[in-house]
Amino acid sequence: MEDCKPASSPSKRMQQQMMDSESPYSLLYCSSKGDRDGVLQELEKGVEPNLADYDKRTALHLASSEGRAEIVLLLLEKGADVNSLDRWGRTPLSDARSFGHVEICKILEAQGGIDPVGLDSQAPCYEIDYSEVDMDEAILVGEGAYGEVYLVKWRGTEVAAKTIRSSIASNPRVRNTFMKELGLWQKLRHPNIVQFLGVLKHSDRLIFLTEYLRNGSLHDILKKKGRFDPPTAVAYALDIARGMNYLHQHKPHAIIHRDLTPSNVLQDEAGHLKVTDFGLSKIAQEKDSYGYKMTGGTGSYRYMAPEVYRRESYGKSVDVFSFALIVYEMFQGGPSHRAEAAVQVADKRAYEDSRPSLSSQVYPEPVKMIEALRSSNICDFICFLGSLDLKFELEHVSTKSRVGDGGGSDMAGVTLHWSLE
């Protein structure tokens, strides 16, 4: 069991939300991990057991999804609402049934739990009738490596409609892989993962819906603000790491993102980051025999692990490599070797062992962490799954900020650890 130590975050973004966002966030995280001591610690602080994240998902939702029966009992004992509804009208019992947690279903039903969603035995629950979404009124809001992203309305709610490029989707193997992945995506629930809503059926294109996050991507934020102050960079790193840890610990098989970049990390209205587009590179990979290749224009090459570029076998550590480069960018204010073409940067990392140079005089302690994360032998000592467990600890954090005059922040000793459990 993981010892969950909630991270303090002194940035202005977090200070403003300390009670209504960060504390319940820790409660959610500990509940999903099955950390009874961590849950009790948060509740004893006075955190309301029914407080939820931006998606209105409570600790009971997450504990039910993850099969944490002991935590479910504890939360119910402490007054958690057994029938709390998330953004999509799902109760904790809805989630427990979706994941096949029979014991938890019995516990929730005994406490009056209901499942307003239910399961449609005639069709997969992730299928959405095409007539429910007016694609003719869709607004193009983005374009990525795999297709376009549109803003549409579904049942009165703004959502993102993502299309898979016809050049990719026309391949029968791609379509088959896509449909297999859908069954997995619709079961994933985490505060730092963009929520998959469903796929449009009766469409000649591959179109799936996700929640829409209007604050944009981490790439957009970096482009606008440049280098982050250390508390904000650490808070954002925690958001990404929690989401990736959830994917890497997925059972029975880990989910590897393969294309983790700032453009694939979005910000919600509460200021937290969520990982998106996981699994799409796996689908597109099916088109290898037809010449598919991730384009440098999307930014993928800049964050690509050497073994991926060399087309070698790889594992979860490729995401850790990309994550380290994103952390670098948050502390340094931009990508490394920005004057060079992305494909040249990837080639040098793959065949010349080139690595970014860091300005150690800026924030020396984070630099040490980044140096370790992007080490050339990263596969030997770091990953998110199994006996290597992800844990960030923030020690001796203090900041001095000047507001309004463009002044920066001074950090006294931020230390981030990847620790063995």
From TrEMBL:
ATP binds at residue 162. Keywords: ANK repeat, ATP-binding, Kinase, Nucleotide-binding, Transferase. Residues 135-421 form the Protein kinase domain. Pfam families: Ank_2, Pkinase. The keyword Cell division does not apply. ANK repeats lie at residues 55-87. InterPro entries: Ankyrin_rpt (IPR002110), Ankyrin_rpt-contain_sf (IPR036770), Kinase-like_dom_sf (IPR011009), Prot_kinase_dom (IPR000719), Protein_kinase_ATP_BS (IPR017441), Ser/Thr_Kinases-Pseudokinases (IPR051681). SMART domains: ANK (SM00248). GO terms for molecular function: ATP binding; protein serine/threonine kinase activity. SUPFAM superfamilies: Ankyrin repeat, Protein kinase-like (PK-like). Belongs to the protein kinase superfamily. TKL Ser/Thr protein kinase family. PANTHER family: PROTEIN KINASE DOMAIN-CONTAINING PROTEIN, SERINE/THREONINE-PROTEIN KINASE TNNI3K-RELATED. This is Protein kinase domain-containing protein. It comes from Dipteronia dyeriana. The lineage of its organism: Eukaryota, Viridiplantae, Streptophyta, Embryophyta, Tracheophyta.
